[in-house]
Amino acid sequence: MHIAEGVLSPVVLGAGYALTAVGTAIGMRRLDTRRMMTVAMLAAVFFMGSLIHVPIGVTSAHLLLNGLLGVLLGWAAFPAILAALFLQALLFQFGGIAVLGVNACTMSFGAVMAWGLYRGICRCWPTHTGQRTAAFLGGAAGVAGAALLTALALGFSEEGFIAAAKILFIAHVPVMLAEGCITMFALGFIARVNPEMLHMPTGR
């Protein structure tokens, strides 16, 4: 879901960098130093996720895993995703430096949406089934939020991109379902082997 350079308007690019700066500042402020290793490992997971492609008809879409990062890290997902996207742009030319702010903004805010949804469902439905449902919906919401924000960035840049934005969102529906399942199984595994990881502070 990386937006390439030369596509977005200067206003959208500037807004992306501004929002990413704010989100990253919040994430750094709320980052628990005990979680630095966890943040680094999840940033690496996010980095590798883009190399795993899911076939969708005649094309494919890569995994994001931003929902998983959001559920586990909260606002700290912002610096983790920003670092991973910077390395992707530098090493593989995914996206680019000019659009780094927008790409980081869309995927990180999607992660924060996933975190909020997950926490809300777990509080209202504090059972094993509720946690599994929250994990699935959180993983799917991360992709949905990123796809929606990416579509808005394209739409605000030029009217001709609106049709492409709609196609982009629809194409990522299978990825939403896939990442919902991945997040649900991942959190189920973590709950068995390291449950403390699910209860460490992820923001306020």
User: Biggest sheet: strands, sense, closure?
Assistant: 2 strands, antiparallel
H/E series, N to C? HHEEHHHHHH
Major β-sheet strand ordering: 1-2
Helix content: over 70%
Shape: globular
- Give me the number of helical elements: 8
- Mean pLDDT metric: 88
**Uncertain segments of ≥5 residues (pLDDT<50)?**
none
Structural class: mainly alpha
Tell me how many strands there are.
2
Rg for CA atoms: 16 Å
Intertermini distance: 29 Å
Beta-strand residue fraction: under 5%
Question: Can you walk me through this structure?
Answer:
The chain has 204 residues and is mostly helical. Helices cover 71% and strands 4% of the residues. A two-stranded antiparallel ribbon has the order 1-2. A hairpin with a 2-residue loop joins strand 1 and strand 2.
Compact summary:
With about 200 residues, this protein is mainly α. It contains 8 helices and 2 strands.
How is the topology of this model organized?
Blueprint lengths: L9 H21 L5 H14 L3 E4 L2 E4 L3 H8 L3 H16 L7 H25 L3 H30 L4 H10 L1 H21 L11
Antiparallel strand pairs: 1-2
Give structural attributes.
204 residues; mainly alpha; two-stranded antiparallel ribbon
